[in-house]
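Lab notes, practical 5.
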Amino acid sequence: MMNITEQLMALQDKEYAAFQSKLTPGIPEEKFIGVRVPEARKLAKMIYKSGEYEAFLMQLPHVYYDEDMLHGLILSEEKDYEQCVKYVDAFLSFVDNWAVCDIMSPKVFKKNKDKLIDKIREWSASEHIYTCRFGMEMLMSHYLDDDFRPEYLEIPAGVISEEYYVNMMIAWFFATALAKQWDATIPYIEKNKLGIWVHNKTIQKARESYRITEEQKEYLKSLKRKG
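Output from the prediction step:
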């Protein structure tokens, strides 16, 4: 029987590998096998159902980008919350790009929001770029609808960083928050609570959203800052 890396190699698409490497700056091209995400998802589900993934999840750091992607997809399938958090914590410090960070979306988190918020605070406060980004992404995914509380906006607002992928996530978060929780979120723009770059990027992303009204878009445009 093929090991997990061999199973990934069997799904290799070299043209796709070259394409992926261009979207993920800083990762050498030879690290890309070229497995398309739908294929990786199918493989992750199959491996999780087999129960034979523990050794793979412990083999850190992985050699290939695609192994990291598969790792994120496997732990997204984990049904035990405490075990999932252990896997996530063990993996996050090895995540070195936005794509692997953003592919992780553990399904079990939806059922454990009372516990998850404390982990989100911890992850979002991390100095590691992708741990911080992941924390804010989970906040955006799970706490801007029925479980929203205005004080949760302070979590990303309190993140001060020079890192592009952190600041992009803050802007993405606040643009989404404007679409879903306008009244609670707009004061952060009106009162200049975000850094200039994040402030203006939030306005740009919100104005690109179909969930923001034309009136809101015009108002946001008037709040752009110079600098």
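Observations recorded by the TA: DSSP finds 14 helices and no strands in the chain. The CA atoms of residues 98 and 130 lie 7 Å apart.
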